[in-house]
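so my prof wants the structure for this chain in the tokens format not the other one, which i didnt know existed until like an hour ago. anyway here's the sequence
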Amino acid sequence: MTKLYYTYSDGDGNETEIANQICYESGEAIDLSGNDEILFTYDEKRRIKSISVEGNAGAKTFEYMQTENENIVTATNENGGSVKSVSAKNGAYDKIFLNGELQITYTNRADGQISVITDSVSDTQTVFSYDALGQRYLYAESKNDVMVKEELSRDVFNHITQTNITGQVSHSYSYSYNNDVYDMKI
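here's what i got, hopefully its the right format
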């Protein structure tokens, strides 16, 4: 058994220290008791299957599924609301759904860096481009046919030498022998 101490703040500067006891079975937390009792259940792969709080009508449940190409995790609350994460096994994308509706998609490069973020709720797409060293040199965001773009230029020492933002200002940077910025032009 382990004791967990934390402080609760109500936002008005009033703080209460709370102590809970955690009971473990085979290395898994199965019971958290104190001011509220929280029960955990696990599946055969030792992943959380459900979390329930004493006095609440239902439990938050977690469902895990694997297809040939995807790993899927769905968390459902006591009211039936759900959040689902769908991840490509090869790392190519991650998608988040809220109550069955696609919210956001992350498209990834082979090295794992994000190349595109598509926000289905706000209808916004953000694109990232990287150089051969994996450093971002372009950020572009588009929404309703309006695009804002930021481009970075680097010197052979990997210092940012110029930034350009669409419709905004351009900045140029120069460096001294000890890597301090000694000149910045706007």
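also thought this was worth mentioning. The chain is about 0% helix and 65% strand.
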